[in-house]
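Whiteboard transcription, Tuesday session. T.W. wrote the structure tokens on the left side:
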């Protein structure tokens, strides 16, 4: 069972680009870990980040 994702795997899992992922990490919005030169994201941290994103609200919604 894989517990962490490389930056590349995080890109694939989210559909976000490398630059955006590093922006999120550097801003503290997405937690990342280091081992030597390798940077990786724990699956639990990625799940928490995604769950905390605001919901999409359609501009065309009637109400």
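and on the right, the sequence the group agreed on:
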């Amino acid at each position: 069972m894989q517990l962490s994702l490389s930056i590349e795997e995080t890109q694939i899992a989210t559909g976000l680009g490398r630059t955006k992922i590093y922006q999120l990490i550097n801003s503290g919005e997405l937690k990342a870990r280091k081992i030597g030169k390798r940077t990786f994201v724990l699956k639990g941290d990625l799940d928490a980040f995604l769950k905390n994103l605001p919901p999409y609200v359609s501009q065309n919604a009637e109400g």
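Someone added at the bottom: The chain has a mean pLDDT of 95.
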